[in-house]
């Protein structure tokens, strides 16, 4: 009997360890697809507008247009009084400024090589993601200088996190190209200052913080126990052909 009691936890641990091992598909060489902070100033050469980015137009020659602020609509357009609608999604700020300049030049006398400037005042469309065992998981706004260490410091791994095996993932939009995945040991970064893997993130990158083996076992047990606990949170008693609910957080109710 005692032997059976020890076999069950061992089997559970084996299943969890095998499952966790299958989640890791990192390749140390994949880090070469990422840039390091000392190599570049920004990770993207140019910014492409998408909803819901917010822009501001600078045009001192046209006071009624100058300093106007607009958010790119879900249909990808921005609209200006007396000028009409313009497609903004998929264009750089400079490309949008050139289109505005062509239309404005028909109505106003513009001077200078670049009489209109479009500035992005709220970068809202591009993001990276931190998932797994962190206090603040989810979508994070991409700024162009987001590093792995900075992203993890902001998301704050929780006590269940396996910080020695954090996965940094660059998804591939091409079915014939595998995603780029490498591992980061956050503990060595924090304790020993080893920042050789502190790369810059691109828009769409994913950081996954896995649970430790013990945390995975606890999560699996909770996954099994929770629906059972909910099922037995109240007691139903059959009386006179009808069910009567007794107990539970909502008080007693008769049916």
What report would you give on this structure?
The protein is α+β, with helices and mostly antiparallel strands and 255 residues long. Among the domains are: 25-43 and 126-214, Outer membrane lipoprotein wza fold like; 54-122, wza like fold. It contains 5 helices and 13 strands. The protein has helices at residues 2-23, 93-105, 148-155, 186-192, 213-231, and strands spanning 54-58, 69-71, 77-80, 84-87, 117-122, 127-132, 138-141, 166-170, 180-184, 206-209, 235-239, 242-246, 253-254. It has a 5-stranded mixed β-sheet with strand order 7-6-10-8-9, with helices on one face. A hairpin with a 2-residue loop joins strand 11 and strand 12 (242-246). The two termini are 44 Å apart. 19% of the residues are buried.
State the CATH class of the domain at 25-43 and 126-214: Alpha Beta
Q: Largest sheet, if any?
A: 5 strands, mixed
In total, the number of strands is 13
**Low-pLDDT residue intervals, each spanning 5 or more residues:** none
**Helix/strand order:** HEEEEHEEEHEEHEHEEE
Mean pLDDT over all positions? 85
Widest sheet: strand ordering: 7-6-10-8-9
Identify the CATH homologous superfamily of the domain at 25-43 and 126-214. Outer membrane lipoprotein wza domain like
State the CATH topology of the domain at 25-43 and 126-214: Outer membrane lipoprotein wza fold like
* Count of DSSP H/I helices: 5
Q: CA-to-CA gap between the ends?
A: 44 Å
Give the second-level CATH assignment, the architecture of the domain at 25-43 and 126-214.
Roll
Computed structural class: alpha+beta
- Beta-strand residue percentage: 15-25%
Rg calculated over all Cα atoms: 28 Å
Helix content: 25-40%
Shape: elongated
